Amino acid sequence: MKRAISKRHLLSVRNISKRFVTSTGLIRRKIIAATQAVDNVSFDLHVGETVGLVGGSGSGKSTLARIILRLIEADSGEVWFDGEPITSLAPDRMRLFRKDFQVVFQDPLHSLNPRRTVAENIMRPLLNFGTARAAARLRAESLMVTVGLNPATIDRYPHEFSGGQCQRIAIARALALKPRLLILDEPVSALDVSVQAQILNLLKSLQAEFNMTYLFVSHDLGLVRWMCDRTLVMYRGKLLETGNSDVVHDQPAHPFTRDFIATVLTMSGDAKWADVAARLDDAETPAEVDEHGCIYAPVCSECRPVCRRKPPVLRHLPTGQAVACHLYEHTSENSAWIHQRAAGVVS
Amino acid sequence: MSLEPSLTISGLQVCFDTPAGKVRALDDVSFSVGQGEIVAIVGESGSGKSVTALSILKLIDMPPGRFEGGEIRLADHDILSMSEHELVKIRGSAAAMLFQNPRGSLDPSFTIQSTIEETLARHQPELSSTDVANFVEQCLRQVGFHDWQRVAASYPHQLSGGMCQRVAMAVALACKPRLLIADEPTTALDVGVQAKVLYQLRMLNREQGLPIILITHDFGVVRAIGQRVIVMYAGQIQEEGSVDEVLKKPMHPYTQALIRSVPEGAVSGEVLYQIPGTPPDLIDPPPACRFADRCEAVMSVCRRVAPQVTTVAEGRRVRCHLYEQPETANEMESVQ
Q: In chain A, where does DSSP find H-type helix?
């Protein structure tokens, strides 16, 4: 099925930052550690598009997803949904927007209420938004069919279903209010390979059927390439590279993206992962990064003096990506290199 | 490399008695692990790969678990005939285990230093205090911690998941095991950290010749460090061979289907291949081939006669009627 991607922005994220602080002391709170979970991140989601948000653990990808959902509040920055700045909406106004964006979490069994039947789980959002019980029940049954489950099993409890089936139930619940944006936070990471394929196929066909926009959070670049039109790569709270999924995957520009791809273990058995692992080995806890430098400098194989002095900004490349890396700055030395690279002379 | 395998399992049958009935978790599982070898056991949830791992040190709760038959020979021990008292002495030293959740296998109220010291006190009580201190350093260095002092002084919650898994490795190594059983050691970790942990496992194998059993559901992990691979489905070994051969030329239709359903390399826009149906209920498994109902190459014999493990080449075994010698197949037909 063909999807239509419009030019219109459904979601705009502008300069979002979030810092988590660990403090100690009962009366005089003293900050002992702070983590910049998300650092000045901006991007747009077009109507009908699937965008992948990729990074390792601690990259801030899930925090960002939660900020968009307003499950946590950002320190600064704005999120616009369909022309409305939702970060500053009062709770009652916000509530009206909630039905337009729904979320599917990683662990299907834990994101369903174990004490309620599947019917109750799927009906909950409908009841919350004023649908009558009988109508909600009918809708829940038809949603079971939509996600490929037998509606006769709707009065069972979540523990009676397998992981893949629970994820289908979670998807049915997310679809109940006909959302326009679905945030998928590692929706298949907890599932077996053969079940993964089923859920991913389901998500793709549902998207075409209901014209939804997806934000797909994942650590698996291969998956994201198959699933997503565009890919955003995050590392320690910063957006390091964005672009068309195939381009980001086949011609990664940022050294981090290249390392990240190299550590993805594939069946074709590229041995590069071990080299990267050996290099990363010494950098488990990178020394305090100079606030003024590039976040990846301590680990980067192409680190130059400038990388420790000033932070790189996202800039566009001829290949269509945007990348935050000093390698791509327009000095005369660099521009020749960039053109060679775009022409495929340098790998 | 000596020829004596470090582990031999033959005809292992394990079942669990549940209110719903007897779950036949393992059926006729036989394989061996040679000296200095990394053997990967791959399968989906419920395939019996973790039960296999736990059986090796008899770590299965009994009841509900029960060994119905077979033999496990670990070094010169006959595991299934050993008492709990005897087993306690060899756990850790004959074979050590690494689990999926590294933080869960470390005690949160002790520093890494005291955790390793405790292990040493138990397994090598003859060591002097200086030796113990040296050994702690050695264990932590072996798993790639250059700043071992800082790690030794930390509590598990102060370390990342990947560091905890490497600490768990260090603790396992403190017992000087002759076999390491790693049950999904990197499943809870992300790719970069996974690469580091696997790198360390491979180093241990290469430098010390430590044989490793690696339980995983990820063919990428199998490819990365496995030498031989065993594919399990519904409590049985379906295929066994070198990693190269099995991944390039899978023989069993299940292995073929499983490899096909990995999204790696799939063209966007294409529908991913998915195996039809669901795994069988092990309380009442299909009487003949357990994969028959989902198999694309199913024949009538597959639903009548249980396929036996056939050795198709040196070190290459498969449980499928497609590869059985015609004579044997005929014999079986006539028996029927």
A: 61-68, 91-98, 118-128, 133-146, 163-175, 193-210, 221-227, 245-250, 255-263, 272-280, 305-309, 332-342
- Domain co-membership, A246 together with A270: no
Nearest to A214 by CA among A190, A231, A233, A239: A231
Nearest-CA distance A25 → chain B (Å) = 19
Q: Contact B196/A273, CB-based, under 8 Å? A: no
Which residues of chain B lie closer than 8 angstroms to A278, CB-CB? 199
Q: Taking the CA of residue A173 as centre, how many other CA atoms within 13 Å lie in the half-sphere pointing to its CB?
A: 27
Question: Which position has the token pair 């390491």?
Answer: B180
Pick the residue of B196, B258, B295 with the most A CBs within 10 A to test the interface with A by mutation: B196
At a CB cut-off of 8 Å and minimum separation 6, what does A139 contact? A123, A126, A131, A176
Give yes or no for A190 touching B (CB within 8 A): no
Last residue of a domain, one of A229, A250, A271: A250
A228, A250, A272: which is the final residue of a domain? A250
How many domains are there within chain A?
2
A274 contacts on B by Cβ (under 8 Å):
195, 199, 202, 224
Please report whether residue A178 resides in a domain.
no
Examine residue A328 and state whether it is found in any structural domain, yes or no: yes
Same domain as A22, residue A75:
yes
Closest residue to A245, CB basis, from B194, B223, B268: B268
Asked if A194 lies within 8 A of B257 by C-beta distance, the reply is yes
Q: Per the domain annotation, does A154 fall within a domain?
A: no
A183 lies in some domain: no
- Chain A CB contacts of B146 under 8 Å are 282
Q: How high is the ipTM of this complex?
A: 0.77
Angle of CA points A153, A159, A160, to nearest 5°: 40
Residue B11 banded pLDDT, cuts 50, 70, 90? very high
Residue B44 reports pLDDT greater than 60: yes
Question: In terms of CA atoms, which chain A residue is nearest residue B44?
Answer: A192
Find chain B residues with C-beta within 8 A of A204's C-beta. Answer: 271
Closest by CA to B159, choosing from A204, B170, B119, is: B170
pLDDT of B18 reads 87
Q: Which of A266-280, B109-123, B186-200, B301-315 has the lowest mean pLDDT?
A: A266-280
The answer to whether residue B257 neighbours chain A at the CB level (below 8 Å) is: yes
DSSP A208-272: HHHT-EEEEEES-HHHHHHH-SEEEEEETTEEEEEEEHHHHHHS--SHHHHHHHHHS--TT--TH
Q: Which of A42-56, B75-89, B255-269, B293-307 shows the lowest per-residue confidence on average (mean pLDDT)?
A: B255-269
| Set of chain B residues whose Cβ sits within 8 Å of the Cβ of A281 | 144, 196, 199
Tell me the shortest Cα–Cα distance from B335 to chain A, in angstroms.
36
Rounded to a whole number, what is the distance in Å from the CA of A189 to chain B's nearest CA?
A: 9
What's the CATH number where A57 sits? 3.40.50.300
% of chain B surpassing 90 pLDDT: 51
Task: Convert the pLDDT of each residue in B200-235 to its tens digit.
Answer: 899 889 998 999 999 998 898 999 999 999 999 999
Which chain A residues are within 8 Å of B267, Cβ to Cβ? 226
Residues contacting residue A115 through CB under 8 Å, at least 6 positions apart: A157
Which one, of A63, A1, A2, A13, lies nearest residue A181 by Cα? A13
Domain spans in chain B, listed from the N-terminal domain onward: 5-95+177-263+273-283, 104-176
Full domain range(s) for residue A30: 5-88+215-250
* Yes or no: domain B5-95+177-263+273-283 corresponds to CATH 3.40.50.300: yes
Q: Would an 8 Å CB–CB cutoff place B265 in contact with chain A? A: yes
